[in-house]
């Protein structure tokens, strides 16, 4: 590996894992029966288990890998307030009246805010120490035209969702980021950031406290309908339950092929830099926000919770690739924004799957066979899937007066698509070309 890129102590593992021990799950026996079996031990499944336990139901959570091995401990730690939800409805006005479209967007954004409120309330109630901060997000405008589009979006966010959004012109951009790379941008104050691995560990403790049984390295197999509900074959034996919840998101596989073909798993790559000079580190993001941009192939980045290093993520490639491939690409993207980081090396590089739905909306519901699910985070999974997981739990308990707007919506797919995203490199290269063309024209 190139010593000018990779630090001698480089790890091909998430930076977040330095603060936890992956695979240290408390050993628990697989019971013969439960009220609910949840397949997937990430944020969705654990939030569902917590809610079920609070309502007196016994949940068993299964994960094929150690609990939290997937995107739940691999993501960038941004906590959205719903400002990115609803992109799939951008053409709604052409299909229905303006007021009807606004009403739908208002309902969608209300659930986005509910996701943020849920995660903040959960962290406080369960006393989860995960460096949560509501610091806001700055989204850099790739072009002046993008800036104008953001200004219109900020008005909509404030009108429909009380997002506390405002525009930052280019001549004031350095108040947000020590860079001239963008053409101004938008601040959305109603967002936060988190240490995802510590959040996940807090959820596992909370789920156990509320009576859930959590079993890692236990792959769910054949699902069979029985008179009392379901029989689930696993690598540790069978278990029966009244209900089954599928909470696998970007790792949805052959166990549920009908759900798999409704999701597009996209690899997202992240790097962490070595510890920076304190003055340099403090100067990069003066207001400690999370950062993103308006490119089609977006980047997202932030400082580490202790403020000592940069965590930089994006689509280095649209498929799983090694750190030797992804890290140099992301580092160059980082240097384009912050040339002052020249010479800074990478200590960690990793990848996780984001799940996109064809309509760019999260989904929860029940399959025709009777399996409950919540998935399709579209890059906003920390808050949204935490919230939807809890809502599935409430729904199973029969204790909810209002179902989320995402419940029971049509969950689209495409003809001949089986869940293997063979088209991503083609689409990705097209989007990259369009980003380049927009920037050149600007």
UniProtKB/TrEMBL annotation:
<dbReference type="InterPro" id="IPR036188">
    <property type="entry name" value="FAD/NAD-bd_sf"/>
</dbReference>
<dbReference type="Pfam" id="PF01266">
    <property type="entry name" value="DAO"/>
</dbReference>
<dbReference type="InterPro" id="IPR006076">
    <property type="entry name" value="FAD-dep_OxRdtase"/>
</dbReference>
<dbReference type="GO" id="GO:0016491">
    <property type="term" value="F:oxidoreductase activity"/>
</dbReference>
<protein>
    <submittedName>
        <fullName>FAD-binding oxidoreductase</fullName>
        <ecNumber>1.-.-.-</ecNumber>
    </submittedName>
</protein>
<keyword id="KW-0560">Oxidoreductase</keyword>
<feature type="domain" description="FAD dependent oxidoreductase">
    <location>
        <begin position="35"/>
        <end position="391"/>
    </location>
</feature>
